[in-house]
Design goal:
eight-stranded antiparallel beta sheet; elongated; alpha+beta; 2 domains
């Protein structure tokens, strides 16, 4: 009888050991998939400037990269992407302002005002774009010039690269909507296929979109207050904010 009890106890311990090993194996898979390894460099302290992207290798030209500062508990973000500067300020739960500009050029400046979940105003060279319906031919031409100009890459990469930075977790959605609106305008009124253009431009980002993994030390998923972009939602958006409707796409000539 004692031998039988001993054997039963051994079997129970072996079963528990096997269960523990299975749990550790499953935890390792979940960790690797949803929590990529952290970078060796420490995160920037709140209010400090942080660089993203690795510097170019010796003998190659340095690629533009995002540098940013998060301040005021996430209500103020500023920085640069290459030669283009940007800043954004949350004024309330549903209000924010943003500005992109090229230093030394008064004409190269885009400003954004978010006044609600469906109310935004983008200003570019005296042209005002609300995102609702079509734009006139002159505004469409101005937006096409913006899409080919020196600020075009920054208008996409700033929201794309900022969205997975750990420091942006307290950033309100209104601020994210203000930073995203210029790229949304180019996709709606200039791109032949907004979804295809968004996926193509996201390929250069340090964040992981469309199944790609982010760079080390970044959030596994883009923060929805700054960017929602995936195979399920192929046009970039910010959680709860929809300043653009579906009318008047591709240059506003429909």
């Amino acid at each position: 009888m004692a031998v039988k009890n001993s054997r039963a106890a051994v079997r129970r311990w072996l079963s528990l050991l096997l269960l523990l090993l299975l749990l550790l194996w499953a935890a390792a898979i979940i960790r690797d998939r949803y929590w990529p390894p952290k970078a060796e460099a420490p995160l920037a302290a709140p209010g400090a400037t942080r660089n993203t992207d690795a510097p170019a290798t010796s003998g190659s030209q340095a690629a533009p990269r995002l540098e940013f500062t998060v301040a005021d508990g996430g209500k103020h973000v500023s920085g640069s992407f290459g030669d283009v500067r940007f800043e954004a300020q949350a004024l309330g739960a549903k209000q924010a302002r943003a500005r992109f500009w090229l230093p030394g050029s008064d004409e190269q400046q885009v400003t954004v005002a978010i006044e609600g979940e469906t109310q935004g105003l983008l200003t570019w060279q005296a042209h005002e774009i609300t995102g609702r319906g079509a734009v006139d031919d002159l505004t469409a031409e101005a937006l096409a010039a913006l899409a080919q100009g020196p600020m075009a890459a920054a208008l996409a990469r700033v929201p794309l690269d900022l969205a997975c930075q750990p420091e942006v977790e307290p950033v309100p959605a209104a601020l994210g909507a203000a930073l995203l609106m210029p790229w949304q305008a180019l996709l709606k009124y200039v791109a032949d296929d907004p979804a295809a253009a968004a996926e193509r431009q996201s390929e250069a980002s340090v964040c992981g979109y469309f199944g790609r993994r982010p760079a080390q030390g970044l959030l596994a998923q883009a923060h929805p207050n700054l960017m929602m972009l995936s195979r399920e939602g192929r046009v970039p958006a910010v959680f709860l904010f929809l300043p653009f409707d579906g009318a008047g796409q591709r240059g506003g000539r429909r």
